[in-house]
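Q: I'm writing up a methods section and want to include an example of the input and output format. Could you take the sequence below and give the corresponding predicted structure tokens, formatted cleanly so I can copy it straight into the document?
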Amino acid sequence: MNPAKLEMAREFGATHTINAAEEENVAKTIKKLTGGGVDYAFECIGVGDVVAQAYNSLGKAGVAVVLGVSKPKDETTIRTLTLPSDERELKGSWFGSARPQHDFPRLLALYRGGKLKLDELITRTYSIDEAPQAFEDLKAGSNARGVIVFD
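A: Here is the clean output for your methods example:
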């Protein structure tokens, strides 16, 4: 929904982007674009309606992964029959389902080898005194990633 973030997604390798604010039915658009749906969809903001969009964007045997942390009372709705009939899967992932002792050395090697772009994701750094501004910018969605630096 943020044109600047959609552009950043393209810079990081996205071949297609869709501005959800401009689409009446995001899942239908994705299914049309992909010829039947995606293999994987990731919900990263913690909103039940977006979980449903991710799930409804799946093709046969697709997996929707919920990473976003929602408000405690937020809910999502899916057509239950599609779980067995389309062999779809809806799963959660807490902190990326990481196994730190295995995953972190691999990720660090990819980063050091220039194959994992992390620095490019940081669009602004803040001092600890600028923390209130950092949180306002987070709420406004003005950064890809803001980082508070503790000196």
